Amino acid sequence: MLWPLFFLVTAIHAELCQPDADNAFKVRLSIKTALGDKAYAWDTNEEYLFKAMVAFSMRKVPNRETTEISHVLLCNVTQRVSFWFVVTDPLKKYTLPAMEVQSAIRMSRNRINNAFFLNDQTLEFLKIPSTLAPPSDPAVPIWIIVFGVIFCIVIVAITVLILSGIRQHRRNNDGPSEVEDAEDKCETAITVENGIPCDPLDTKDGCLNDAFVTEGERLTPL
Predict the structure, then answer these.
(1) 174 has which bridge partners?
(2) pTM of the full predicted structure?
(3) Which residues contact 68 (CB under 8 A, 6 or more apart)?
(4) Of 28, 61, 171, 187, whose CB is crowded by the most CB atoms within 10 A?
């Protein structure tokens, strides 16, 4: 009596899981490409692990907490490691909606990849988009970077102000000396008295007119 029931269940499973069936997904693994000499053989044990990972993913979906390994069906397994799979309801009468299966796989994609030592490129769910890797936290917090930039700007601004003040102070100190030099030049310039030019002898004692200088005074140095 068990044999007819077994063939009936097998026939039902064959209808549910087949290429391009409703809610079916194709999987392709590139084990040799990913692991090279360390590649493992795909056998029934690996199939069991795959079913377990899919069931684990489905149990995280609301109202699918009762999903078991036996609810995951595989078919059309090839030697180059590709196959189709579906997830059935607890009574195995119909397959679960593709959107639910897709959402579950996407949420647990990294866990599934790690179970087979593969990644999104070497373990492909052909109808399920690859998930992006979670953003890595920067080694230095963002606020420290912002603070450093602002601190540098403040330091540069203070330095510019100090240098500007020093230059302005030097200009103010150099101004009076230039005026005094100009006055000295004016005082030492040759003057003309009564139409006769006189050479300056001393800025304090005035000028000496050559017309009134005696012969002795001309020869005697001051």
Answers:
(1) none
(2) 0.56
(3) 55, 90
(4) 61
